[in-house]
Fold each of these.
Amino acid sequence: MPAAIEIINLTKTYRSLFGLRQVTAVDNLNLHVDEGEVFGFLGPNGAGKTTTIKILLGILYPSSGECKLFGEQFTSSSAFAPETADSRLKASIGYLPEGPYFHEFLTGREVLAFYGRLYGLGGQNLKKRISETLEIVGMEYAADRLVQHYSKGMRQRVGLAQALLSDPKLLILDEPTVGLDPIARREIRDLLLKLKGLGKTLFICSHELSEVEMVCERIGIVNHGKLIKYGKLVDLAFKDRAVEIHVASLSDETRKKLEALNCITGKHETGLTSIRLPARQAVYDVLDVLKASSTDVVEVLSQKESLEDLFIRTVKEEVA
């Protein structure tokens, strides 16, 4: 089965003002997104995320390299012409831009009717798709209200409904929870998981790292157009992280044995004695020492990084 997204040696360069120098927005980028997964595409401002998304959507063309969607590649500038291979490929993509704008004097249902006609839908088929997408995003109750009376969370839901109208296999979502209050963020997060359950592939670009951490299985972090971290979130967050063991107390002899294993011992804020291990693989050696000395082990904690910590550390290391 081909990947939903496959990016191969992708590079995009621009000429700066007056053409004095060349600017590289995307630099030899390689990644793939499996069908049915939720992928987080992360990076600081100016990292090349938006350029990459525009290339995936066929809005921009790469300077070199290629992007494939479900094993196919855009072939020509005629992508917007009806009944071309490229137009059919684009119909498999749903896109939610950051801060979607809709005409204030239209209702939610009329907004979807407008975009549905752009997709080439009409008649009873369009009415059916509008009803289905409104139900998926939970906006049936407000479908006939004017957009000007919608909250930001409601506008995001209509934006998602618009992205779902053509029943796409792939959803590209740019900042789907930006600026929302905690309740609206939770609602959108639950909706994204619902879409995954429907078999959709989600490619999420966001600075809301705590939200990404809750829904994404794999991530890619880019900076200055280059991919600097890539893989399963659980592997990246736990890889080579320290472990801390809390015990009631330590004898001087046991403490010396632990220090020989490069452990750091000290008092924890709870009043317990903490033993900090340099790496996860040393856990069993330390536990053997504690067991031999009949030391009372209270708890063993893995010092997992948050996605925010991982992101900041990765970007800083790349800059250094």
Amino acid sequence: MNMLSKIGLTAILAGVAWLFIYATQEPKGGLNSSAEQSTEKLLNDYNVYALEIPEQMDFAGEEVPLNDPDVRERMDRELLVNTYWQSNALLIFKRANKYFPIIEPLLKKYGIPDDFKYLAIAESALENNSSPAGAAGFWHFMKGTGQEYGLEINEYVDERYNLELATKVAADYLKDSRNKFGNWTLAAAAYNAGNGGINKQLTRQKVDGYYDLLLNSETSRYVFRILAFKEILSNPKKYGFNFREQDLYKTIPTYTVKVDTSVTNFADFAQKFGINYKILKLHNPWLRESYLKNASGKEYFIEIPEKGYYNIP
């Protein structure tokens, strides 16, 4: 190594040593200055804002009385909770892009206001899941209610997980509630608390509207959660959500295959259509077993994704 190289290496090493000492030494002013700098950096880099409540809101065309201070506070709570639970809200944006195109025409077909698609978010976050109480599917029906409205629920088939059939049942239930109470807001509340529960409280408290009722915590928040999802999903930029079209989940086109016999093995069945067992179950979560007993010859319609959307070996 020549003399210039040695001098250059020495200078570099000295510079690194100086930077290390500078970075690790206590700043002038002691610990208090360090804390102040950290606080200033936090304030500059991260901010949480109070949200402006819209001047006017409605659910299914029915006005929300935002001039009532209790109503404003309850609306404020749900907007804050669901705006600042960013990961959950962003997932809902993604899922809505996939499932709203399925749900919206079904609600229209069955005569239900479009705003009820946000009720499905409040129930299940647009996932075919189940609650600790046993409610299941996108619309979270209990087993007894689902069977009462005509859904097949047994160890082989659970039509609460069939989005099209369950949406029809949700529509029938909501229309029954609407006919009973006279408005869609109470029908939405009754979806959570039951028609009997809402009717009991209306009679007991001598009022005729949801916003005048004193209810348990869950039902008291329920309609406001639906309203918050409507507001946030309708105005993503306003609430700080940024995404591209390619970030959202997509609806995968399918066609249906009629089955009116038993199926001994759904893994074999799936392969006949160029897919695997996992994909068959993803598109037909209402099939609860790896086989189907069908002694009665009932007709079932199984969804098969069109070719080209999955990489199947």
Amino acid sequence: MTLPTETPRERMFNAPGVIVGFVAVLVAIHAVRVWLLAEDTDIGVLLDHAFIPLRLYLWLWPDGAGEIARRIAQAGGEDAPRQLALLRYLLSEQDGRPWTVLTYAFLHGNWAHVAVNGAWLMAFGAPLGRRIGTVRTLVFLAVTAIAGALTHFAIHPDAAVPVIGASAAASGVMAAAMRFAFGPRGPSMVQQTFGPVRTLRELMRDRSVMIFFGVWFVLNLVFGLFAAPLGIADGGIAWEAHIGGFAAGFLLMPMIDPLRRHGRP
């Protein structure tokens, strides 16, 4: 692999085909759901392909259904009948649908949700895709999405609220890019695409990285609290999935980096 000798003109969204294609798939899926599917059919798509922690929980520990039903009944409230109905539906499936730890990433709540994740993927997926190539990028997106779902499951194993969106993968992409695409003057998505992967200690000494990480953390907090009022999501933001995707992307980057195998730093 040859390092670039000249600095090309930088365009923030000059993303490789694998990233553009992934975002295009997200847009196409949401367009089909919004414009072509009937409401009942779309609900079926969500139930079949969204990640519902409770479904996986009941598949792994079916004896826990009785305790969950008692907890819902004791809590009461207007939402209790819906939760009990969902519990009965999930029990009738007798299928944990483990593949939903990946398929949930292709579904979004609304166009604002698609736009936010798409912009994040285009911006930070550009240097990552150029550096690691198409196949590794697809593996990376899958692993970080799965890590996000499993992190959410570990914290909320019996949650009945469906989790959707590519935010965990987007967070993982940002974490990976942060390890090599940031210089003394902040992120440079073209010039530093082939720079060395930096350690956690090196990143903590870099003011621009720490500022950016702080901004990411605050944005996650704001979205978690105000996503529904801002129209970004119909419900709350699964911030636990964001953290899981971020951690997975940070740890996975040096393992999947092809430059190390070619003797690069």
